[in-house]
Write a structure and sequence with these properties.
41% of the residues lie in helices and 13% in strands. The protein has 23 helices and 19 strands. Strands 1, 2, 3, 4, 5, 6, 7, 8, 9, 10 and 11 form an 11-stranded antiparallel beta sheet that branches. Strand 1 and strand 2 (67-71) form a beta hairpin. 45% of the residues are buried.
């Protein structure tokens, strides 16, 4: 592909860098950071990170907008986490062919399974476009004008790069709390096919018992393949005529392994962090966001778990939904514990006191950045934020009935003849393969009851009066009434919205009542939110100015980032944690499966992992096969599936989790405690080889 002329590098030189912490953009990686990487064992030239044809970034992909991945073969094979491929695996599963339960291997190219609404995205180039925006008067405009200005520049840049290659597009994202804006050129491939997955017992081994914990033995990977236009080798919509994509660069998995202290680097798409946020924002995160989220999800998951255990068909439908819910249920609990145990709020307050003294002495942003104002603004919105979190966790995409009701209330596709208003209608596609009526009813019932118990009465939707008067406070009877009397859940039903019957439909009214509360919660909040955003931006700008002699990375925003560090253990219960796990440790857990269901696995897995000789997958230093390992790389959500590289740029693992003590890292990275957990690439290849007998893939990958 021709190299776009849109973006140019602008390198900056900084002073001393704080090792191991940081999610660094690649095009302008500070030289001081690169020198620190070299001192810790990185062996490649600077240009092989971003600039060269064989730059490592050319093998790394954004996986479907929520994970990361890496290309590992000349024919477009992509490794990502098992949990990143979860929905694709689930969507292909049936009771008769349960790939989630039993795993899957496409023995030929023709057997590889296409996936709806999945993609991989390559970052081609990046540039700081703040000067262009400022030349247009960006900082002097209001919020709406700023958004329009960014959209206009984004369209213009996209038009420019598409003159070079019509498959490219440009996104402009804010960095440093909106103090800078970067433009990124992307190329998206939408024909992505499932090639290999281990059974869920291994891909999610340990389940919620081990989630966010160490030690881990999870074989958290899945394999996809990128398909391309046979004539151009570029992106193309799915077609049986498409062929495997041939990338300009791919990552070679290494069998050499690592030792304690070995250089380790992740590269991927971390989703969101709040490292620059004020102490007042941290309090809000703990009390008004995390606490409600954990509480509501705990209630919902009890119902889901019971129904999933009772029926294999229900389990297949909800495996992915449950995993998504449970992940940030536990994350919220763990983050709050870390915030309190580490004393992060007080640490932030102490830092802000020093920043205020510096501001007083320099006059920087005098009359603009105001700590008393920031405190007041957060206090004004905290209760509404807390209530809004209860609202979201109760009604927004938590059950099929609420989802449909809110779709109607917020506007959905109109069908029927254009010139006959009486015949226009709404209808829902048949998605009965994605939800279960009994589970859906019970979830809605328990969530309605829970919502009332935790929010102020003024934020109760109007239908709560109906629950009290007509159904005597019986939530189950009310939900049964909704399901029975409303057309929302009737297969093939047409809802003619210009009729009295539509307006009287209890599901329609339910959705309207729910949205009325949403609008009430948001009334008057726009100005407060904008003011907080402005003050937080000023706070970030002050930090950058006060520490101008240091390099600073921006908060994660799902753009490509690099983090570096070492293979490193930590103190666990006052004892060394160890930096890797072995087959003996997973077999020991499998032996406890009668008491902990998350440790259940197929007999063949226990047999394979009880082997004494793991051949070429054995670590030469320890004499054992490593399953998972620890580094002090700086990661967060979105980094799932991120490749982990050694100092030679070779693939040694895939990041899939953090430890319990890392859960506050979104707001405060503590290199003493925070660890990245990766699945060793040799464990991945061993399972593909000895369990999957995926000889054609092992040959294609050509690990050495």
């Amino acid at each position: 592909m021709k190299k776009s002329t849109l973006l140019i590098a602008a390198l900056m030189t900084f002073g001393t860098v704080k090792a191991d912490e940081g999610m660094w953009t690649l095009y302008n990686l500070p030289q001081a950071v690169y020198r620190q990487m070299q001192s810790e064992g990185f062996l490649l030239p600077y240009r092989d990170l971003y600039e060269s044809k064989d730059a490592i970034k050319n093998a790394v992909v954004n996986f479907s907008g929520y994970c990361s991945g890496v290309v590992v073969s000349p024919d477009g094979l992509v490794f990502t986490n098992h949990h990143c491929g979860f929905e694709a695996i689930r969507s292909h599963s049936t009771v008769e062919h349960d790939y989630m339960l039993n795993g899957f291997f496409a023995k030929t190219l023709a057997d590889e399974l296409p996936n709806k609404d999945m993609f991989v995205s390559f970052m081609r180039e990046q540039k700081d476009v703040t000067p262009q925006l400022e030349s247009l008067g960006y900082s002097r405009c209001g919020k709406d004008q700023q958004a329009a200005m960014v959209d206009s520049l984004q369209r213009a840049l996209t038009d420019s790069v598409r003159q070079i290659d019509p498959t490219l597009h440009v996104d402009i994202d804010p960095f440093y709390e909106g103090n800078r804006h970067y433009a990124t050129v992307y190329q998206d491939f939408t024909d992505l096919r499932l090639v290999f997955t281990v059974p869920k017992s291994m891909g999610k081994f340990g389940g919620e018992t081990d989630n966010w914990m160490w030690p881990r033995q999870t074989c958290d990977f899945s394999v996809f393949r990128i398909y391309a236009d046979p004539k151009t080798n570029g992106p193309a919509a799915y077609s049986k005529d498409n062929v495997p994509y041939h990338p300009q660069h791919w990552a070679r998995p290494s069998l050499e392994g690592y030792q304690a202290g070995s250089f380790a680097m992740t590269m991927g798409y971390p989703g969101s962090t709040s490292r620059y946020i004020s102490s007042y924002g941290i309090v809000e995160r703990r009390d008004a966001e995390n606490t409600p989220r954990a509480q509501v999800r705990g209630v919902k998951q009890e119902v889901m778990r019971r129904h999933m255990r009772a029926s294999e068909a229900v389990r297949i439908k909800y495996d992915s939904k449950f995993a998504q819910s449970a992940n940030y249920w536990k994350n919220s609990i763990g983050m709050n514990k870390c915030i309190d145990s580490i004393g992060i709020i007080q640490q932030k307050r102490d830092y802000e006191a020093r920043l205020r003294q510096w501001q007083d002495s320099t006059g920087f942003l005098k009359g603009q950045l105001s700590f008393p104002l920031l405190e007041k603004l957060y206090a004004r919105r905290q209760e509404r934020v807390r209530t809004m979190m209860y609202w979201r966790e109760t009604f927004r995409r938590t059950n099929e009935f609420s989802t449909r009701a809110m779709q109607l209330a917020t506007g959905m596709e109109v069908k029927g003849p254009k010139k006959n208003a009486a015949k226009k209608y709404h209808s829902f596609a048949d998605n009965s393969n994605e939800w279960d009526a009994a589970l859906d009813r019970e979830v809605l019932s328990v969530l309605l009851k829970n919502y009332r118990e935790h929010v102020d009465a003024r934020y109760l939707p109007k239908f709560y009066t109906t629950i009290d008067t007509r159904f005597e406070g019986d939530y189950t009877r009310f939900v049964d009434y909704l399901y029975t009397r409303s057309l929302l859940m009737k297969k093939g039903a047409k809802l003619y919205y210009n009729t009295k019957a539509y307006k009287a439909d209890p599901g329609v009214r339910f959705g309207q009542d729910v949205m009325d509360v949403f609008y009430d919660l948001n009334e008057g909040m726009g100005a407060i939110n904008d003011s907080i955003e402005t003050q937080e931006r000023y706070l970030c700008a002050a930090k950058l100015r006060m520490e101008a002699d240091l390099p600073h990375y921006s908060d994660a925003n799902f753009t490509m980032r690099l983090s570096y560090g070492q293979v490193k253990e930590f103190e666990l219960g006052g004892k060394p944690s160890g930096y890797y796990t072995t087959p003996e440790s997973i077999v020991e857990k499998m032996n406890r499966a009668a008491h902990i269901t998350d440790y259940e696995a197929e007999p063949i897995m226990k047999e394979l992992l009880s082997a004494r000789d793991f051949g070429r997958y054995t670590d030469k230093t320890t004499g054992q096969m490593h399953l998972c390992f620890l580094t002090n790389n700086d990661i967060t959500g979105g980094n799932s599936g991120s490749p982990m590289f050694n100092g030679k740029g070779e693939l040694i693992g895939l990041a899939f989790d953090g430890n319990w003590d890392s859960l506050s890292s979104d707001i405060n990275f503590d290199k003493r405690l925070a660890r990245c957990i990766g699945v060793d690439i040799r464990y991945v290849l061993y399972m593909m080889d000895k369990w999957g007998h995926a000889d054609r893939l092992i040959k294609e990958i050509d690990a050495r």
